[in-house]
Design brief:
Blueprint lengths: L30 H18 L7 H4 L7 E8 L3 H12 L5 E4 L15 E3 L4 H5 L6 H11 L6 H20 L6 E3 L9 E3 L2 H14 L3 E3 L3 E7 L7 E8 L2 E13 L8 H7 L17 H8 L4 E2 L7 E5 L17 E4 L12 H9 L6 E6 H10 L1 H7 L11 E4 L2 H8 L3 H18 L25 E9 L6 E3 L5 E3 L5 E7 L4 E2 L10 H19 L14
Parallel strand pairs: 1-2, 1-9, 2-6, 9-18, 16-19
Antiparallel strand pairs: 3-5, 4-5, 7-8, 8-9, 10-16, 11-15, 12-13, 13-15, 14-15, 17-18
């Protein structure tokens, strides 16, 4: 039986805890909690700067000699650090993590921290009914059935195991929510800096060496292809040297959102979209893997996400108020999409609108409810309650005046919104695009009728890439024939095959932990080669 034909998987019986006020934090429903989160983020940010840029013994060599470790990991984001911890827990030996940027974390500290997982103990404690099969179907549907089914199942199972382990260590989500493309509340919302700093501290406590400012530039093959990858070449402070990996090399270098040449090659429409990926997301791991024969998958699966305030600088400029009942219109005042769809699909439709200009229309009832539902939306829209302005937001006591303030054609806009409101009131759905829920089948859609009314100018933005190195369900890098490249693994945003032709919320973050865990365990299981093991051309 193939993976895609497996029967529905029910939630395993997991030990239940009373997590109310303990394991699960309060949501950001009040200012006190919001301030607490800000303090934690600041503390975590300060902690992250304490990691030394280089190990002292390397900086003393004019011409650094080759070094020997058991597992070498390129990238110190969630995937790389998870791999390091899991490899060391499996007694891999000497482990080295190399990060080319001055600070660790990568995109894992810039994201919102939504980790999608099914059948977790936290879901059970909250009374959320879910199945692995439902999660599988959500991913396959969003990916237009182009995802690798075995890789999807690996994400579901390993991701849950990694999440349960993290929670058992005291790192817990503050809520579990619905996210883009999810049919069930399964997005476990963590504080990204808190997670990264926990992983860093745990790795260091286990004896893992972490070096920042150290760029892996090349994978080095062993003397024969059957023996796989010998190690890597690293550049730091103007010096270049080789490092042997006696067990394996793991690539956790992220995507290529900051590499304009690669974006232009695979998704030229996104060149003008704001890019919010980590500075180090330049495709290094993908390039190096391809150089040693790795197959690349889904390389045109690049999407923007919807919706951001104009000129966004971080994920904190991303609103989900359309999942709370707002409707999207273009500069002509016309709707153009079912707003309950996943945010990458909405973004692709938005880019096609005249001048790619779009707006979100909502009323006071939607605003107040959305601020209770999502932390970032509270941060975006709460200034209104203090009489402050929000960038790109027009408001008025009538829809007509709000449209005029936003510069939209008033008559066409009013006709569109009245049609929407009338259909929602009479039918519970609208006819033009088929919207019948707030978010992917969840929540009752409501008419916009409670003043004041708001019209917010928004744009799509580029959050990451959903393609890369083809992997097996064990996180092994695969060649063009689907065979594992010996002793080479990949995890996180650098992989392909998971998302297919699309993506859903929380799977990108989950993939870092799920495949970081698998890569670390599998790398540690590789037989240790002796230090005389050769490479092409010698050291």
């Amino acid at each position: 039986m193939s993976s895609s034909e497996r029967p529905p998987a029910r939630c395993a019986s997991l030990s239940s805890r009373n997590i109310s006020g303990k394991c699960l934090r309060r949501s950001y429903a009040d200012e006190e909690t919001a301030n607490m989160i800000r303090r934690r983020l600041l503390k975590a940010a300060l902690l992250s700067t304490s990691l030394p840029a280089v190990a002292q013994n390397n900086s003393l060599h004019e011409e650094p000699p080759a070094e020997i470790f058991d597992v070498v990991i390129a990238g110190a984001g969630a995937a790389g650090l998870t791999a390091a911890v899991m490899a060391q827990k499996a007694s891999a030996g000497r482990i080295l993590v190399l990060e080319k940027e001055p600070l660790i974390g990568g995109t894992s500290v810039l994201c919102e921290g939504n980790w999608s997982a099914s059948c977790t103990s936290i879901q059970a404690d909250l009374g959320i009914k879910d199945t692995d099969d439902a999660f599988f179907q959500d991913i396959m549907r969003a990916g237009d059935d182009k995802s690798d089914p075995d890789v999807v199942w690996a994400l579901i199972r390993s991701g849950r195991t990694a999440l349960e382990w993290l929670v058992s260590q005291g790192v817990t989500p503050y809520t579990v929510s619905v996210n883009s493309g999810l049919s069930v509340r399964r997005a476990h919302c963590f504080l990204p800096f808190e997670v990264i700093n926990f992983l860093r501290r745990r790795a260091e406590s286990l004896g893992v060496s972490i070096r920042t400012g150290s760029e892996v530039t090349k994978l080095i093959r062993a003397e024969t292809s059957e023996k796989g990858i010998w190690g890597i070449e690293v550049k730091q402070a103007g010096k270049t040297w080789k490092i042997q990996a006696r067990r394996a090399v793991i690539l956790a270098t992220g995507g290529f959102g900051r590499n304009r040449e690669m974006v232009a090659r695979y998704a030229p429409k996104l060149l003008n979209a704001p890019c919010l990926t980590a500075p180090g997301s330049t495709g290094d791991g993908i390039r190096m893997a391809a150089e040693v024969g790795a197959n690349l998958r889904d390389m045109d699966n690049l999407h923007a996400a919807y919706a951001f305030l104009s000129h966004p600088e971080s994920i904190n400029a991303m609103t989900h108020i359309f999942y709370g009942g707002a409707v999207a219109v273009n500069k002509l005042g016309r709707r153009f999409v079912d707003e309950s769809l996943d945010y990458t699909t909405i973004a692709s439709k938005a880019i096609e609108q005249p001048d790619a200009a779009t707006f979100l229309v909502f009323d006071e009832r939607v605003r107040l409810q959305q601020m209770k539902s999502r932390a970032v939306d509270r941060l975006i829209f709460s200034p209104i309650d203090k009489g402050l302005s929000v960038h790109g937001l027009a408001s008025a006591e009538t829809l007509k005046d709000a449209a005029a303030a936003a510069g939209l054609p008033v008559e066409d806009f009013i006709t569109e919104i009245e049609k929407y409101n009338n259909e929602i009131s009479a039918l519970g759905r609208e006819a033009s695009f088929g919207r019948s829920s707030l978010d992917f089948g969840i929540g009752k859609v409501i008419p916009l009728e409670v003043p004041p009314f708001y019209i917010l100018s928004v744009v799509p933005a580029f959050l990451g890439t959903y393609c890369g190195i083809a992997i097996s369900p064990k996180a092994e890098a695969l060649d063009a024939n689907g065979r594992p490249i010996p002793r080479l693994y990949a995890a996180g945003e650098v992989i392909g095959g998971l998302h297919g032709r699309g993506s859903i919320g929380g799977t990108h973050y989950a993939a870092a932990f799920a495949f970081g865990r698998l890569a670390g365990i599998e790398a540690a299981a590789q037989p240790r080669r002796n230090t005389n093991f050769g490479l092409k051309g010698g050291i």
